[in-house]
């Protein structure tokens, strides 16, 4: 590993990426991935000022995965989802979703992609449903436009019922959005987004306007859809509690994936299943990693750090500490570091 700002304290060479390894760490050539973003950059220019909303974001999501994307306001979550939904194009980098290469798509390809491969649920409930149609009609119109739903009108009716059942919105079938709560609208919106049987479902803050109880129901609905249909699902949310509902949470910081939390079920001491959550930092293709800001602050890490290679791990030290020394000599004077 090399780093512009790191002093490497080790008599062993720290390995660099193998020759020719130009793929992001942990990413292969994308075969089989439902979503594969490589080095996505999105620069917005507003009033002559550039904003780098995405700064080399790489992400791989496997088919059938349910992934939550979290991050502070302005970290680039919606920018990423706009690109994945085909609404926006990146300044640089590539994105592939459900086998569709999103960069360089023409208008027709984009229509086909949005109609057949992805479904969306937006934060603003009003953006998801047509206000003058009932829940059932909102779904039926999508089926009709896409020419889906076998067996003509009867087949479409059956598909509409199936989708409303799946999202727990069967009672809302004949109601218009104004006659539903926010949570009910979002569950119908999920049914609408699934009407085309998309391979990937994208949801940008689907619970942003909901109270806690409705939030839990919407997240549970997304999870059961993912379980039952196997639809690969990406949910953007501000809700830190979301990681309790999903097996993988990725955190965006400053336009890059900084960290991931993975949940898995293990056997507890009583022999029963127990959920454990583990936090990971994420390495990019050239070995860059973001240290958690609280750790940086608490350890007083600034500008340069020492990397101390051990057999099976790498320690990061403040530059004023010498990990090869012991006792009081461990401390060196920042201003008179050994040369
Ligand atoms: N159309 C635009 N023009 C200029 N700057 C933009 C535009 N869209 C987003 N940005 C900027 O890009 C950055 C990332 O914005 P983005 O909307 O992706 O963040 P976010 O993580 O979704 O935030 P939030 O949690 O508030 O929804 C922000 O600094 C934002 O101001
Ligand atoms: Mg957003």
CATH architecture of the domain at 62-86 and 100-248: 3-Layer(aba) Sandwich
Bound molecules: adenosine-5'-triphosphate, magnesium ion
Count helical runs: 8
Mean pLDDT metric = 84
Placed side by side, the strands forming the largest sheet appear as 7-8-9-4-10-11-12
State the name of the first-level CATH class of the domain at 62-86 and 100-248: Alpha Beta
The helix-and-strand class reads: alpha/beta
CATH fold topology of the domain at 62-86 and 100-248: Rossmann fold
Strand content: 25-35%
- Number of DSSP strand runs: 14
Poorly predicted regions are 1-29, 334-339
Sheet of most strands:
7 strands, mixed
What is the terminal separation in angstroms? 21 Å
Radius of gyration: 24 Å
Shape annotation: globular
The helix/strand order is EEEEHEEHEHHHHEHEEEEHEE
């Amino acid at each position: 590993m090399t780093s512009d700002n790191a002093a490497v304290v080790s008599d062993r060479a720290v390995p660099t990426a193998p020759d020719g390894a130009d793929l992001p760490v942990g990413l292969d050539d994308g075969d089989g991935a439902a979503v594969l973003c490589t080095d996505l950059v999105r620069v917005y220019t507003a009033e002559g000022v550039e904003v780098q909303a995405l700064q080399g974001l790489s992400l791989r999501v496997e088919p059938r995965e349910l992934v939550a994307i979290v991050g502070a306001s302005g970290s680039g979550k919606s920018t990423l989802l706009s690109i994945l939904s085909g609404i926006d194009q990146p300044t640089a980098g590539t994105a592939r979703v459900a086998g569709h290469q999103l960069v360089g798509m023409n208008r027709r390809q984009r229509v086909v992609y949005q109609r057949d491969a992805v479904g969306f649920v937006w934060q603003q409930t009003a953006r998801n449903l047509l206000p003058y149609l009932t829940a059932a009609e909102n779904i039926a119109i999508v089926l009709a436009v896409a020419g889906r739903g076998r067996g003509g009108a009867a087949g479409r009716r059956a598909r509409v019922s199936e989708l409303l059942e799946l999202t727990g919105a069967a009672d809302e079938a004949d109601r218009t959005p104004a006659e539903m709560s926010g949570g009910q609208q979002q569950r119908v919106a999920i049914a609408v987004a699934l009407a085309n049987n998309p391979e990937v479902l994208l949801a940008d803050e689907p619970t942003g306007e909901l109270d806690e109880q409705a939030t839990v129901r919407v997240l549970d609905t997304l999870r059961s859809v993912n379980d039952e249909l196997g639809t690969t699902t990406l949910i953007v949310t501000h809700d830190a509690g979301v990681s309790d509902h999903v097996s993988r949470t990725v955190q965006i910081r400053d336009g890059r994936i900084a960290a991931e939390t993975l949940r898995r079920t293990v056997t507890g001491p009583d022999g029963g299943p127990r959920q454990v959550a583990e936090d990971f930092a994420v390495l990019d293709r050239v070995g860059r990693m973001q240290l958690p800001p609280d750790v940086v602050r608490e350890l007083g890490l600034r500008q340069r750090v020492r990397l101390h290679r051990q057999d099976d791990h790498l320690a990061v030290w403040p530059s004023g500490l010498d990990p090869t020394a012991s006792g009081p000599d461990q401390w060196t004077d920042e201003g008179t570091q050994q040369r």
